[in-house]
Amino acid sequence: MLSASDLPKTIPIFPLPGALLLPRARLPLHIFEPRYLQMLEDTMKTSHRLIGMVQPREVPGGEARKLHRIGCSGRLTGFSETEDGRYMITLTGVSRFRILSENDSFAPYLTADVEWTPFARDLGHAETDSRFSRTDFMTKLNRFFDARGLSTDWDSLKDAEDELLINSLSMLCPFDVEEKQALLEAPTLATRRETLVTLMEFALRRGDGGEEMLQ
């Protein structure tokens, strides 16, 4: 486990729409673009092996994209190389961060100066949610999955710890970029669970002409 003193001031940034990473969760990624292959090689030479996952945001009235200021760093904890030189990697979430400035450098990928202090609790133990009603939550989740035609291993979900369950669903459910960002920025696990339930409710109402309500 990394401590606050281990966190670097500058990290490589991997902007990827819809790819949400949360502390202590795992995110598998397929790396094939040359600039990100270079990023991966450079990251493996560092002691921290951190990559910052950040979601791009659309700029109204233009084709340019800017980055959300808050992302989550992941430590490279697994990788394998394919025969054609691509990588399958796994990032394990360490801590969220706020981008202070984007850097100009000779690297083909983006780096940024970041601050970690606002998210110090990310480095602690797994969070719990004392108000979490698993039975009610699973009922709502089942309806959401049915409406979207999604499937999952329900037995594994029922047995998962609170944080693993809520964070894994936040990462995997098919929400848009801004909705995923809201889940990322939720200050506590309880807030993230409330946001997740709200997004499922909205999705069901939109899907049923505004008439569907979760009870």
From TrEMBL:
Gene3D superfamilies: LON domain-like
Pfam families (UniProt xref): LON_substr_bdg (PF02190)
Domain Lon N-terminal: 11-204
Protein name: LON peptidase substrate-binding domain-containing protein
